[in-house]
Structures are given as C-alpha cells and as structure tokens.
Amino acid sequence: MTARVHRSTARLLASVTVGALALAACSGGSDGSAEQTPVAAPDEEEPVTITVDSFGGIFDNYEKAGLLDAYMDEHPNVTIEFQETQDEPDYWTALTTKLNSGSGLADIQPIEISRTALVTQQQQDRWVDLTQSAEADHIDDYPDAKNGAITTEDGAVLGFGTDAGPMAICFRTDKLEEAGLPATADELSQEITDWDAYESLGQEYTEATGEPWMDTVSGYYRLLTSVEPVRNYDEEGEPTWETNDTVRPAFMRAAAAAEQGLTADYEQFSQEWNTAMSTGAFATLACPAWMLGYIKQQAGDENAGNWSVMPLPQELGGNWGGSYLSVPRTSENAGAAIQLAAFLTSAESQNELFNQGLSFPSHSDSVEQVRDVTDAYFSDAPIGEIFSASYASAPDQPLGVDDGVIDVALTEALVSVRTNDVSPEDAWNTAVQNIENQAG
Amino acid sequence: MSVDAPPDREAAGSRTTSPGPRQRRSLAERFAPYGYISPFFLLFGAFGLFPLAFTLWLSFFEFRLGGGDPQFLGLENYVWLFGSDAFYNALLNTLTIGLLSTVPQLCIALALAHQLNYSMRLRNFFRVSMIIPYATSLVAATLVFGSIFSNSAGGLANVLIGLVGLDPVSWTNGKWTAQFAIAVIVTWHWAGYNALIYLAGMQSIPQDLYEAAAIDGASRWHQFLHVTLPGLRPTILFTIVVSTIGATQLFTEPFLFGNGAGGGALGQYQVIAMYMYEVAFTFGRLGRASAIAMVLLVLVIALVLLNTGLARLKMRDRPIRTTPSGGAR
Q1: If you ran DSSP here, which 8-state letter would residue B219 be given?
Q2: ipTM
Q3: Exposed e or buried b for every residue in A85-115, given b needs 16+ CB within 10 A?
Q4: Cβ distance A358 to A65 under 8 Å?
Q5: Residue B314's pLDDT is what?
Q6: What number of other Cβ atoms are within 10 A of residue B19's Cβ?
Q7: Between B308 and A31, whose confidence is greater?
Q8: Nearest chain A Cα distance for residue B4, angstroms
Q9: How far apart are CA A351 and CA A347, in angstroms?
Q10: pLDDT greater than 60 at residue B329
Q11: CB A75 within 8 A of CB A98
C-alpha cells in the first residue's frame, strides 16, 4: 500500500502543522527503556477502545472486507476507531513527530517497509517487541524476508506483516496487439527471457507505434533493483550503493532505456501518469501486487480485459512495498491492540483481502492458499500463481537509514536523463554528489 | 499601533501628574491593560517566539525526523549549508522567480488600479472582481494552472502557443518555462490584491489635483506619472516589502506545480522554502532544515531593511507633500 495519490490539500496542511508541531514537540525527548516487560493477553470482559492511525487505505480495506465488524462481533468489549491518511510521507511525518513527543500515538500504527530501517535502528525502544507478547507464535507465520525487515539487531520483532508487494509486469494487451506483437502473458514470457529481450521488444513496439514502452524510467529502475540480493546497503548495514553490482548497473540500464525513448515522460503517481493508465500512453509497467488495484481504479471498467499481468523473466522475484502493524510502547491497550493486529494479519484475514482484490498477503499460509486465483479484469491472468512465485523468490534486501535520500537522488537523476537530456554519466555523478551532500 | 487611546487612560495619565493618595489606582486597575493585551503576547510567545527560539536551538544540533536524541554539532549545519550546491541553486531560483513574479505583478496592479480609479461603468463590479483570484484557494488555483501548463500537447498553454505556430513546450522540465509558469500563478493570485491596495491609496489623493492636471492638458498617462505615482509612494513601498517577503517564502505554487519538494529533476524550480521542506521531511534532517530556516529569516530581514533603506533614500531626494486628507504616511 505505497500508493501515493496525487498531492492534496492534506499534504500542505500537514507540512504547515507538522512543521509547527515538530518544533513544539521535540522537547519531549526519549522515554524509551531498553528492556520491555512482556505484554499479556487482554481481559476479554473489560470494555476497550482500540485507536488506529492508518495510511494508504490499510484500515479502509479491513473495513471494506468486513474484518473490523467481524472482530467486534466476536469481541463485544472491543470498539475500533481508526483514521486514515492517504499519503504515506504525510503519515510518517506525523508519526515521527508524535514519537518524538511521546504523545498522541494510537494503539496501532502501521509502518511501511521502506521505513523499517529507521524503526529498527533508531526507534527500537519506542515499539512493542511482539516476541514478548501473547501472540508471539504469529511471528513464525511469515517468511524470513518479511520478518527480517522489521527485526532489530537484538532479535525484537516490531510488527506483524500486512500486505506485500511482489513484483510482476503489467501490460496493455490491446496496445501490443495493435503494434503486431505477442499480446498474451504466455507468448510474452517466451519472448521476454531477460531484460535485454524486454528492451528489444520495447524497441519494436516504440518503432511500430511511436509511443513509449514503459511507464517511467524510475519504475524500470525500481523493477531492476527489486530482484537483486542487495540494493543500497549490504548485510552489515554499510552503504555500498556506489560500488555494488546492483545500483550502478541498474541505473545505467534504466538510463539507456530512457535515452532510447523507451520510457514515457511522466512522474510516477502524477496526474498524467494516472491518466495514461486508461489511455494506454505506455504499454508496460513494473507491477507490484498492489498496483493491480491502482490500475483498476485509474483505468476504470472500460479498460477491463485491456490489461494483463506477466511474471518477471528468469523466474525472478522482487518486492516493492508492503506494511506492518505495530504497537507503540505508550499504548495503554497494548494487549488488546496486539490481539487485533494478529487477527487482521492472520491467514484468513489476508485471504479475504486478496479475494476481494484489496491487497496481496504476506502470511506464508495465505500466500499458498491464494495460488489459484485469477483476475478477470487482467484478462484472467493467473495473478495468484504469478505473485506467489515472485514473493517466494524475492530477496531479503537489507535496508538502511538513508535509503530515502539515495532513492530520491537516483530517481531524480534518472528523470533528468529522460526529460533534460542529461547524459547518464553526468546524471550519475550529480546523484553521487547529492547523496554525499544530503546523507553525510 | 493605534493612536485611539481610551479616554480613561488619558484622564488617568493627567491625574498622575498631581499625585495624591485618593488618586492612586488600585492594583487591578494598574494591571488591567496588561491583562487586556496579554492574549496576543501569550499566543505570540507560544506560537511565534518559542518556535523561533527552538528552531534556532535546533539548528545547532543533528536531529533526525526518524528518531534518536539531538546531538550537538555547533555550527556544522551552517557549514554544511553554505557548502551545499542545492542551497545556492534554491537561493537563485527564489531570486529569479521572485523577480519574475513581483515586478509584473506590481506593474499590473498599478495599471489596474489606475484605470479603476476613474469613474466608469460597472466600476464596482470590476473592483470586486479584482479580489476574486485572491479569494480563490491557492491550492485549487495551482492545480488548475498545473493542468493549463501541462507538458502534453493538449494542455491549454500549449494549445495557445500552438496558435502562433510554436511547438508544444514541456513546461515543468525546462528551467525558464517552469519558472515562468510559476510566476504566472503568483502574479494571477496577487495582482488584484495589490491593485486594491493601490486603489485605496489613490482614493486618498485629492481629486482636485487630477482636475487641475486635466485642465492643464495632462493626459491620463501624465496624470499617472506626475500625480498618482508620487502620491502613492508609501503604498508602493508597502506592497514591495510585502511582496518581497512573500516571494522569499514562496512554497505552495512551485510545490504543487511539480510533484513534490524536489522542484524538478534538476531542481530547476526548487525554491528555498521547498529545499527546507525537502531536507526536513523527505530527508528527515530537522537540524539542517532549521539552519535553512534561520538563514531564510535573516534573508527576509535583510531584504526588508534594504527595501526600506532604498525607499528612505529616495524620499529624502523628493519629499512627499502631505495631503490634507492624510494621503501620505
């Protein structure tokens, strides 16, 4: 659920209020004690209100899937109150402000996977260690890659996984057909055996139609890096992006594709990009599982059957996004909150969400159980099989505290290759300079 | 502030010149004025002074949005800032966008106000419509302008320049095209507001000056040059100061015009406030952002002093006649 819908008033308001709050709040200081007493199971009799601050529709989806009502029926003493922020960056800003001040936190706060490095390295004493809770067994329900990101050095697990974002490639069957190219997932999979083949097919498409093959240069870069064992950091937590075998080669490959005009001239999640999903101004895009819902929403019913999904070449797997449900230590209802979080992330709940097309599961059992699902909107593509396989082979990439800075700088540099005719080498050097300046 | 001192207080003031036990005011009476003005100062202290002082304090620390305790760095954040290319880029963009927007904006406002100052049909309608852009939500307006200046060939701006035979422009990608588009938004938003301020200033210039000028055969243009402009000088100074501050703090328009605080792939329209926002909330470095905020504050103060200083020099050259109706301040 990383979908960042176009900027809105909320974002602005957040920038203003949060700016003021951040200043007023910082004086709170740290209150974290390193050791944490185990959290017991909640009293099933006593009335309790569990508050939730959510982002990107995570709890909207739970409500849509009927899970919140189901839980309250089963636990009459529980009332769930949640609020949603659409934009994850706004949510994160507000969350960190509250963490710094030590007040205003809800009982459950979801955390997006790209923030987990900061959470596990700098906020470990602010979140409940779920290994020390009554629901500790639930942790074993996840594959290592999902748990790894939210586990601290000391082995504390700070959240239950919600959804995941296994990677695939979405494409426009109608546009490919028009261009006289293979237009079914099977045919394409035979054709696209590696990234070179993906690009050369793109060249054929671009020559035939005069239109770009991929959505954005940054999306392609995201796709290329998501399948590699490491990205910006190595297992020891050292930043290796400048010299490792992932970042620069992927940067250069994406930049070359941009120079050849294979990528459209959009920014991801911009209005024009959204519109292009229905007009077909680009033919393919990097497609984490949650992108399917995004495409359906943007492209609308009139495009049903025009889109389809194919797996990554060479049986590669990758991940983009996904979240965790975490409980701050300040929560007075930690026991009840953890029980609810465990319910919402159980295999049954995750199946329900997937069956309703809301998100892809991260629970190991659930991933197995959704294997047979197909999606009529996406030309009956076997989305269960595709995403399960991608999830299973997705690497457990180590994350770092400056991933945000590094990704922003590299993405901007790639966009400058596409839109400002900067040479890939110059763009890379600018990015290196910017990262050193901002992350130093 | 106000010169309308309450009569009570004046009376009390004159009474204290002849002190006597009966005239000594009670404690409550003596402190009442402070009580009355205290809400402003309490609010100012909490929401103005404290954040300011805290920002200053924070600018000497390394403090990450993600967590951790502040660590004292001394002046390192400032050293970093003045060695950062992105900072100078943002500073320069602020300056160029400021010039591109403020100068045309004030000229247009003057011209509008001058026309509206003459009696004409539907004058009140035109005067009221001046304020409509200002009353429009800036966010909504920027989003509309964002689609007008769309990069695609179908955007309104591209269609219009297509009519004169120019090729479509990808507005957000070029440095000057993006800055021009942003300047248009700013000008559209503020020109009417400034026109009303000028109009108010013009109302206080006595009509007989215009009549005398007209009898002497002065055209409207000469009336404008020799009657309106000198009479308006304090008002113009005021609008220049306010617009300069506004231009220095420009944020909403460029922020919403692109997609985020980066200001384009090369930072081609990233202004200083956006850079501050990016450092604080994209990169999570609150200490560094605070240093930028302090530099921005110093910059605003310096610009205002420069403006008023220049104007004072000018006024010493040609003192303004004070009109009976108090046209000059």
Answers
A1: -
A2: 0.76
A3: bbbbbbbbbbbbbbbbbbeebbbbbbbbbbb
A4: yes
A5: 67
A6: 9
A7: B308
A8: 35
A9: 6
A10: no
A11: no
A311 with A167: CB under 8 angstroms?
no
- CB contact A96 to B (< 8 Å): yes
Average pLDDT, chain B: 84
Least Cα distance to A424 among A215, A262, A248 occurs for A248
Torsion of CA A424, A425, A429, A431, to 10 degrees: 10
Q: Over range B174-196, report the average pLDDT.
A: 92
DSSP assignment of A208-273: HHSS-SBS-HHHHHHHHHHTSS-SSB-TTS-B-TTTSTTHHHHHHHHHHHHHTT-B-S--TTSHHH
Question: Residue A360's beta-bridge partner residues?
Answer: A164
- The C-alpha atoms of residue A115 and residue A321 are separated, in whole angstroms, by 10
Contact B265 A420 (CB under 8 A): yes
Q: Choose the closest CB to B170 out of A18, A123, A265.
A: A265
Residues 228-267 of A with CB under 8 A from B: 265, 267
In this structure, how many other beta carbons lie within 10 angstroms of the beta carbon of residue A182?
Answer: 16
Place of tokens 């013009």: B202
Name the token pair of B19.
Answer: 């002190």
CATH number of B85-317: 1.10.3720.10
Show the tokens assigned to A298. 């943007």
The more confidently predicted of residues B27 and B318 is B27
Radius of gyration over alpha carbons of chain A, in Å? 22
- C-alpha–C-alpha distance, residues A273 and A294, integer Å: 12
Per-residue confidence (pLDDT) for residue A20, from 0 to 100? 43
Amino acid B16: pLDDT:
46
**Number of Cβ within a 10 Å radius of residue A224:** 20
Beta strands A48-55 and A78-85, pairing class: parallel
Q: List phi, psi (to 5°) of B319.
A: -60, 145
- A269 contact residues in B (CB cutoff 8 A): 259
Residue B321 is given by DSSP the state P
Per DSSP, the three-state class of A3 is coil
* Residue A289 near residue A163, CB atoms below 8 Å: yes
Diameter over CA atoms, chain B:
88
A404 close to B (CB below 8 A): yes
Domain boundaries, chain B: 85-317
Question: What residue ranges define each of the domains in chain A, with the CATH number in brackets?
Answer: 43-164+322-369 (3.40.190.10), 166-320+380-439 (3.40.190.10)
Which amino acid is located at A70 in the chain? Answer: A
**Cβ-based contacts of B286 with chain A (< 8 Å):** 22, 26
**CA A260 to chain CA mean position, Å:** 29
Give the list of residues 6+ apart from residue A7 with CB closer than 8 angstroms, or none.
Answer: A87, B255, B256, B259, B260
Q: Which two tokens stand for residue A345?
A: 């992330």
User: pLDDT band at residue B2, thresholds of 50, 70 and 90?
Assistant: very low
pLDDT of B257-300, one tens digit each?
876 788 888 889 999 999 999 998 888 889 999 999 999 999 99
Over chain A (440 residues), what is each successive 10-residue block's mean pLDDT?
Answer: 40 42 39 64 86 91 92 94 87 88 90 90 90 91 88 92 93 92 90 93 92 93 93 90 93 94 87 88 92 87 92 91 93 93 94 86 90 89 91 88 89 90 93 88
Helix (H) or strand (E) holding A417: helix A403-419
Which residue in B171, B252, B266, B292 has the most chain A C-beta atoms within 10 A of its own C-beta, making it the best mutation to test that interface?
B266
Token pair in block for residue B225:
């040059």
Q: Which two tokens stand for residue A281?
A: 């101004």
The token pair that represents A285 in the structure block: 């895009």
Percent over 70 (pLDDT), chain B: 87
Q: Which two tokens stand for residue A263?
A: 């990528």
- CA angle (B157, B161, B162) in 5-degree steps: 110
Amino acid at B322: T
Q: Which chain A positions have a beta carbon within 8 Å of B169's beta carbon?
A: none
Is residue A272 less than 8 Å (CB to CB) from chain B? yes
